[in-house]
Amino acid sequence: MNAIRPNSAMARDIAFHIHQQTDLKAHKEQGGTLFTKGDGIHVFDENGKEYIEGMAGLWCASLGFSEKRLAEAAYKQLLQLPYYHTFFGNGHTLATDLAEKLISMAPVKMSKVLFQCSGSECNDAAVKLIWYYHNAIGKPEKKKIIGRERGYHGNTIASVSISGQPHMRAGFDIPLPGFVHTDNPNYYRGHEEGETEEQFSDRMAANLEKLILAEGPETVAAFFGEPVQGGGGALTPPRTYWAKIQAVLKKYDVLFVADEVICGFGRTGNMWGSQTYDLQPDMLSCAKALTASYQPLSALMISEKIYEAMVKQSETHGSFGHGFTYGAHPVACAVALETQKIYEERDIVGHVKAVSPAFLGGLEKFSQHPLVGDVRGVGLIAGVELMADGAKRVPFPAARKVGNLVMAKAADHGLIVRAIGDRIAFTPPLIITEAEIAEMLSRFGKALDDAYAVLKSEGVA
Ligand code: PMP
């Protein structure tokens, strides 16, 4: 770690800036990394060091870090109409065009789109709409929301209450009452000896049913799930999981919200994770790759039955009392429309399908590495489980923070990945080429070797 020079950008950053999702004490003592430039799948820090962004930022910069067309779309819109809102029936044609486009792309029949600024706001709005809907249809007692342990749906008070991330609850009096959680479907870590993926999925669905029955089905409104869990570890669902979970939701008349904030727009090798896993959501939230993350924007798609009930409810109350100053921001909508054009012109879904075998196959080879217990992924999202003994599923001591060690070694070799506990997540920009995948994996291999050498010297590996 370099010493922090007085008055350097890092010293000023430590002095004035609170970083999000950050170990505040460590940042205060050691600072972090400040980035100044992007180029394709690469980013550069303030010292000029180059990194492959193996996480596309926060699972989001789908078109990399130097797509000029998106900068131009934003600039053009800033000159034309830099701001307008969508309150009181007002709006602008960009939101109209984008809403129409999203409805035409939806994985199941959807009726309307509500634009917000972030994934969190989108899921928060989904909760409000779910409550609004149940009031409208005369079921005011049906309000509870089910999330999953280690699921992630955002950081507003409601969206983080749906989430199942222990460190985001601790110290914040989260979750709110009425938010309950079912199992995290990590087959590798969670299966009993001899239990197949299908049997594990049976158990997950049976536990969900038990939870609904314990809470009282008449009180349970909705279930939120990411097709592939992101913040929970870039975790693909075990075989037959989604079919079994959806059957339980149907049985008890529980709405299903597919959180496609990470999976939407090609990440899993289809336009939607819902297509990859045959999901039939009543609502769908998306963000991140909607604009390739060049502007903040999210979209909540809802089915006609929910929209009709909302109209009825809004008649009762004089209007639909929800909205944000920056929701459906015209610059963000312009960038989203251009992003969608680029996806189509470059057949981004076809590209993900084409390069996915090199990505998943290359990562799979690390299963043989002494630090690796399991590798799972789909499309261009994958997680690598680090284990003291992979075959026997013996984890490393949590206090050693082996995931963080591998992440730091990767950064030394010019690769940004994310440690989620001892699981290493990869979600590179969707534009990554096979040659770039090879380079990314080569840097990862060096990081694993370096970490192994350290752990061996400590007697941990
Ligand atoms: N849902 C999922 C699945 C996410 O991964 C995230 C962010 N990583 C969110 C919601 C929240 O999105 P935002 O950070 O834009 O609020």
Automatic annotation (TrEMBL):
<dbReference type="InterPro" id="IPR015422">
    <property type="entry name" value="PyrdxlP-dep_Trfase_small"/>
</dbReference>
<dbReference type="InterPro" id="IPR015424">
    <property type="entry name" value="PyrdxlP-dep_Trfase"/>
</dbReference>
<dbReference type="InterPro" id="IPR015421">
    <property type="entry name" value="PyrdxlP-dep_Trfase_major"/>
</dbReference>
<dbReference type="InterPro" id="IPR049704">
    <property type="entry name" value="Aminotrans_3_PPA_site"/>
</dbReference>
<dbReference type="GO" id="GO:0009102">
    <property type="term" value="P:biotin biosynthetic process"/>
</dbReference>
<keyword id="KW-0032">Aminotransferase</keyword>
<protein>
    <submittedName>
        <fullName>4-aminobutyrate--pyruvate transaminase</fullName>
    </submittedName>
</protein>
<dbReference type="Pfam" id="PF00202">
    <property type="entry name" value="Aminotran_3"/>
</dbReference>
<dbReference type="InterPro" id="IPR005814">
    <property type="entry name" value="Aminotrans_3"/>
</dbReference>
<keyword id="KW-0663">Pyridoxal phosphate</keyword>
<comment type="similarity">
    <text>Belongs to the class-III pyridoxal-phosphate-dependent aminotransferase family.</text>
</comment>
<dbReference type="GO" id="GO:0030170">
    <property type="term" value="F:pyridoxal phosphate binding"/>
</dbReference>
<keyword id="KW-0808">Transferase</keyword>
<keyword id="KW-0670">Pyruvate</keyword>
<dbReference type="GO" id="GO:0004015">
    <property type="term" value="F:adenosylmethionine-8-amino-7-oxononanoate transaminase activity"/>
</dbReference>
<dbReference type="GO" id="GO:0009448">
    <property type="term" value="P:gamma-aminobutyric acid metabolic process"/>
</dbReference>
